[in-house]
Specification:
CATH architecture of the largest domain: 2-Layer Sandwich
Number of helices: 14
Shape: globular
Strand order of the largest sheet: 12-18-17-16-13-14-15
Distance between the termini: 9 Å
CATH class of the largest domain: Alpha Beta
Number of domains: 2
CATH topology of the largest domain: Endonuclease, Chain A
Helix content: 25-40%
CATH superfamily of the largest domain: Endonuclease Chain A
Structural class: alpha+beta
Amino acid sequence: MRFRNTQNDLTVTAICGTTCCLLSFHIDVKKTKGMLGFAIEREDKTENEKYFLKGFKYFEETGLTAGNGQLFTTFEQPIQSFLWEDFTVKAKHEYVYNIIPVFGKPKLLKYGKSCSITVNTPSHELAEHEVYFNRGVAGSNAYASKFKNKRPSEMAPDEKETALKWLSRGLFEALIGFINSAKDNQYQLRAALYEFEYRPVLEAFKTAFEDRNVDVQIVYDSRGQKEKNEESISLVNLPASILTPRTKNSNYISHNKFIILLKNNVPISVWTGSTNITEKGIFGQCNTGHIIKNENIAQKYFEYWKCLQSDPELTTIKNKAFEIQKELRFDEIPNGTSVFFSPRKSKDILKTYSDFINNSNSLICGMFPFSFNKLIKEAVTKQTDQLKYILIDKEDKNTTLVTDDFDNIIVYGGYFEEPLFDWLKEKSAGGLFKSGTNFIHNKIMLIDPMGENPIVVIGSANFSDNSISNNDENTLIIKGNKDLADMYLTEFVRVFNHYYVRQIAKKMTQTNNRNPLHLFTDSKDWVPTFYKSTTLKGKRKKLYDNMVV
């Protein structure tokens, strides 16, 4: 959802998702002399609240003592940026932002004329898509403040419930809701799952089968995840009649995470995305649940699932995946939703992804949990004019990317192992939940998400050779859906900024002694970089200025 308003020579542009609103400000550069930033007042029309938003930064000159992740009102400690992100909005709400330029000096602020903009955040449910991101930042100042870095397994039941709900941010509830939408014996559920361990989800399947007479059939990985999956299956006492272990080609993995909903044996919708059925997958590492309500796409998933249920050999499933969807060049991808299944006979789809990057116009956003294909790496690191923001779970010999392109920002997951610059000590998802990836588990690529014809690529596949050639995987490519791109972009920015701050803060302790939480007192120290066409901040601001609303 995109909005813009101009008032008192100030233009405000907004992009809204379900839990994030991205704001950009523009004013004639001649009128920025002496500017100390912006105060941001937000009125929630839905819940009848009005107050100034808060930030981490403050003027050292005001004599404030900061600590423990303290926040300060922007009315007194303004935002020194022409780009701001509000990560505290709620779905289906109407907000009014009042953006006020601030001048003067730290102890004698003066306020200019403001610009107000009214925005409406969307529902999680769009026309045929429904998207849920968990909080995905278990290692955070917010978690440290709210829950004292305690593992949920060590909490009292009420506190654990509160913590998990906060971490889930609707993802778990949506997953259970999808299973529960199979209401009676008119419905069928067909699932293909890699890690199948979190007991409340297994119990939801069991309840659907035994109490509501839903026809349930589940294919689960019985190769790399055999022991853990079958232990959970045994604990919940899931009937063997509804289960099919995937055993063939034991060197590879049955990496899917999808559930098909059928009514009277007609596929009507699919739950997919990156979320494994584990406690850490749902509540810890960053993940997505994506529901698509498209009978044509659901039917393709069903055809693929029926092949999986036969526990096929590699050649058989490769032929089936190609039969359902042949290879497509990047310029052949149609508007709307396409689905690709793996394993495939060729790796052409990986070249298609690299071509997406090479032929983009302005902005690339990527989330990569693990190492990925060489062609995609080359496309990411090559010298270009477009901005590329890449988020990777951890830095190692396979994921270290070297680039001389200053437009290319590569960030790795991390947390404050010790307090830095008044932030709290944190714990990673690995310190809160057992096993698995600690930070980023999404598999997402956004191509020109602020443009008129954006592309969103999501699913279970890790953009690697193995994921395409050997593993059971599914990937959606959605082209031309601006509202969906806005949803994914806002969440990407939220998670990217979280880890970017931690990466930069750690580097700053090694390069200078200035506290990055201190605001500047001279507009020359922060304004000009937003008005230069060659700087990162200038290029980011220009994306908003040029965006069609």
